[in-house]
Amino acid sequence: xxxxxxxxxxxxxxxxxxxxxxxxxxxxxxxxxxxxxxxxxxxxxxxxxxxxxxxxxxxxxxxxxxxxxxxxxxxxxxxxxxxxxxxxxxxxxxxxxxxxxxxxxxxxxxxxxxxxxxxxxxxxxxxxxxxxxxxxxxxxxxxxxxxxxxxxxxxxxxxxxxxxxxxxxxxxxxxxxxxxxxxxxxxxxxxxxxxxxxxxxxxxxxxxxxxxxxxxxxxxxxxxxxxxxxxxxxxxxxxxxxxxxxxxxxxxxxxxxxxxxxxxxxxxxxxxxxxxxxxxxxxxxxxxxxxxxxxxxxxxxxxxxxxxxxxxxxxxxxxxxxxxxxxxxxxxxxxxxxxxxxxxxxxxxxxxxxxxxxxxxxxxxxxxxxxxxxxxxxxxxxxxxxxxxxxxxxxxxxxxxxxxxxxxxxxxxxxxxxxxxxxxxxxxxxxxxxxxxxxxxxxxxxxxxxxxxxxxxxxxxxxxxxxxxxxxxxxxxxxxxxxxxxxxxxxxxxxxxxxxxxxxxxxxxxxxxxxxxxxxxxxxxxxxxxxxxxxxxxxxxxxxxxxxxxxxxxxxxxxxxxxxxxxxxxxxxxxxxxxxxxxxxxxxxxxxxxxxxxxxxxxxxxxxxxxxxxxxxxxxxxxxxxxxxxxxxxxxxxxxxxxxxxxxxxxxxxxxxxxxxxxxxxxxxxxxxxxxxxxxxxxxxxxxxxxxxxxxxxxxxxxxxxxxxxxxxxxxxxxxxxxxxxxxxxxxxxxxxxxxxxxxxxxxxxxxxxxxxxxxxxxxxxxxxxxxxxxxxxxxxxxxxxxxxxxxxxxxxxxxxxxxxxxxxxxxxxxxxxxxxxxxxxxxxxxxxxxxxxxxxxxxxxxxxxxxxxxxxxxxxxxxxxxxxxxxxxxxxxxxxxxxxxxxxxxxxxxxxxxxxxxxxxxxxxxxxxxxxxxxxxxxxxxxxxxxxxxxxxxxxxxxxxxxxxxxxxxxxxxxxxxxxxxxxxxxxxxxxxxxxxxxxxxxxxxxxxxxxxxxxxxxxxxxxxxxxxxxxxxxxxxxxxxxxxxxxxxxxxxxxxxxxxxxxxxxxxxxxxxxxxxxxxxxxxxxxxxxxxxxxxxxxxxxxxxxxxxxxxxxxxxxxxxxxxxxxxxxxxxxxxxxxxxxxxxxxxxxxxxxxxxxxxxxxxxxxxxxxxxxxxxxxxxxxxxx
Length: 1172
Hints:
Layout: H1 3-10, H2 16-22, H3 33-47, H4 60-84, H5 94-103, E1 115-125, E2 142-143, H6 152-163, E3 175-179, E4 182-188, E5 198-205, E6 208-215, E7 217-220, E8 223-226, E9 236-240, E10 252-259, E11 261-269, E12 277-280, E13 285-295, E14 301-304, E15 306-308, E16 328-333, E17 339-343, E18 354-362, E19 378-385, E20 391-400, H7 413-426, H8 433-443, E21 447-456, E22 476-497, H9 501-516, H10 519-528, E23 532-533, E24 540-547, E25 550-556, E26 581-585, E27 590-593, E28 599-602, E29 610-611, E30 613-621, E31 636-638, E32 647-652, H11 661-672, E33 677-682, E34 687-691, E35 721-725, E36 729-743, E37 757-759, E38 764-766, E39 769-772, E40 777-779, E41 783-786, E42 791-800, E43 806-815, H12 829-834, E44 844-851, E45 857-861, H13 864-867, E46 870-872, E47 889-892, E48 897-902, E49 907-911, E50 914-929, E51 943-951, H14 952-962, H15 975-987, E52 994-1000, E53 1002-1006, E54 1017-1023, H16 1031-1045, E55 1056-1058, H17 1059-1070, E56 1074-1081, E57 1093-1095, E58 1100-1104, E59 1111-1114, H18 1119-1122, E60 1128-1131, E61 1139-1142, H19 1152-1166
Parallel strand pairs: 15-16, 46-47, 51-52, 53-58, 54-59
Antiparallel strand pairs: 1-2, 1-10, 1-20, 3-4, 4-9, 5-6, 6-10, 7-8, 9-10, 11-18, 12-17, 13-14, 13-18, 16-17, 19-20, 21-51, 22-36, 22-50, 23-32, 24-25, 25-31, 26-30, 26-32, 27-28, 27-29, 30-31, 33-34, 33-35, 35-36, 36-43, 37-38, 39-42, 39-50, 40-41, 42-43, 44-45, 44-50, 47-48, 48-49, 54-56, ...
């Protein structure tokens, strides 16, 4: 027997084993009051049945048990709370979240102050400074790029040089660097300030006053930043020149500004210790602006200590610094954006000792979006010492040139919980593919979604692949022989809703106005409106003066009489006004030489450079168009050189870009009264006119035969915009046409309409274009002779297929507009190249319909040498089919149908497999794509990583736009701003062999009036007849479900939307209230099923724009309501079940796409909530 057992048995009052044994039956899983009370009573009954048997509720012993149970519940609750605070995923207290994040070497980000560059708009000095013309500039305001002052640049430089040191005038900077491909230079004023050079000002931003400071500006390693604050330091500023001229927002003199207030504090360290911690209790200290100086006994700053990132917990040992830098510290984030300074351990860095001074900036901790109009006229006075030793004052006036949206609030606890483990995983570096998906999220709280793609890796050729030439980062210059040019007439729909007349006025500005300036409606105007021919008037151009691409003169008739123009005449010449296009032909027996200043030459235009006609645009008409000025300048100014004697043959008035106020008033009244009406363009007046419902013919094809008819017989079919309403919303249908250019095999096109390439030598935008080469035959069906000049088409938009993807084989083109003023250079391009009136039946291009495995229909070009289609004017002209082989295809122009011959049955069967369009194929062409020089890629790296970023500020602004808080659709931040805001942080942790290319992500709106017309739709709902529920409640619940489905966390960039998924989710959320949920496109050319699958580009992410006005509750499903062909049957025998089937009884006219789409809808809807 051991002594322990013996002592326990004999000496101890109770053996611990026996005590433990008595608790074997205790229920330790009880935490709440009731269970604790029950457990204690059960314990007493089982272990002390004889000692305690008073269980009456009024017993004082039960009262003691109640108190113990109450105390036990509180202790259990507090223990549970405290235990939760030890786990990052469960912690609620801010201090706990920050503490746990630090254990993962993650330092949560504090608020980020709004910051950017202010451009110096004007300068003024109190010093007597004279320019080269001996003009005294003392107290004179010199404005940057002042058009009224020819010597502004010299005077601006003179004033600045007077304030700079002798050895560092403009042109000899203190330092140089390149920031995002823009050369940047730093200069310092000879300022006499004794304190830190900071100039504060207040501005009202978003309804509240905010404090800002203009600070001394530095540039290091391609990053513009604030200089470390130092008393007595000379104020520094920057000069930038992007090569785009003085009017560019990136050219001129700039200073950095930051939101917040610079503050400072002092502390003493007498007895340093390892990893010394010094707490700074100021709140809202921003994430970047902290500087630490050691000071001498007089309180003067001596040495700036180096701030490093906090890594490996609270130690700065592992920071990658030069061994010679030992005075280092890190900044630790605390609650309410307080900070603590953490110093080294004395081995890898020096221990702090003595007096220290810390500078820090506190901000508003708000998300500010600063518009350029919010920061104008900011005046700062800088005292400086002149070269003669006299004290003078320099006055600078600043202005913001771009929107600043880089402010952010403190990182939320939810963000910390998400980012801290991710940051620990990446170990503060980006090496693997997953690192590039995670690290950007941890670098800034402004980045809310990211996707990185390694586009080019080591070992992959960088040479341009002609079959896959994206041209995103390099210029493209390609020739090919397989070009196809076609024209399409399309009716497009847009919509809007309103409550007040103010809403209508906003819709006219934001919906109708963009339609009027749309290229499709201008193309339609140029194609379908009758040509105003004036050749019979015998008008001749008389040239007065000739300048570079400009010509002045006047018109005379055959008798030599000068002709009055514009409002001074009632003849056709009244159409000659600013913006009007004029077509000139050469006199008989002559032609123009386009390569020799459009000079006239004898003979036929059959050699290179010769042309038969010229187009010119009216720039201005002085008075009545007949008075020649004293200096010889003619009254009519045109934008091209037209030689003396050229004959005017055609006039094309410019279509108006806006609606005059009187017609706007009529539109508002009509819309407010929920009227149906049209809008036509009056060529004679050059104005838009309203067509009332009593005169409007909305069903007939376009015709101007009854334009302006007021007989109330609904005869006017000349409308270009048709306004219709269902009593809640308005739908605008506008007529348009577009031109498509395609390369069947050899060339792939790339186009980005948001990327404008500027030529600083010509001062013009460099446009992507397709040139139809002069080596093409004029008309392969009749004229073997080639053209004599190239014909240029301007690329205006990429082409998207039915699924929403960009089809790089095609692009949308339009008539070239060299000066980008909205007036084309040559509206005859299509007629010249296609010549559709000559051998018209041979001018059709055929496409074949191909249905993908997921039921999506696409049209693909098929040369007629393969299809061998016989084109006839109408079916009556066919005659006997006995001479034709089996399977021969016939196309009838008048009926616009295809038939296939079946020799077995001797029948002609209608087919919808083919499509015909006016156009031309086998075109030899030259494709030119211009890439901005600023998108050059460093060729020395091995990997090129495309990083797509969605920023919080853009997300917030866009959702405000969707909620009608703002009326202007926000633009995604530019690649430049992404680089400036996040490039420094990410470049520090990326691999040396990698080059990051930043791409902004934009939202792609689905449904609703703010979506593109092809993505607008109505949701049709059939309610469960057995359940009584309010219609508005159902609509509201449907929109809520759709918004939840399109929540940001549910989608990634470049994904595909499937309506079956949305159907399953909506049915799950609203069952059994509804039994049917389908989507019907609003566009006339779209049918049921067209929106069942929509794809986004790699830089797009879906967002819903649907509102309750897009939801319609119907009593049953019909083919008309679904815009589908075939018979449709609806059953609702069980709650939450939908059955839609399509019948194939209608043979040739049946739409197979609708069939497959309907079946897809049925399967998803019938599954209720189980399919999601």
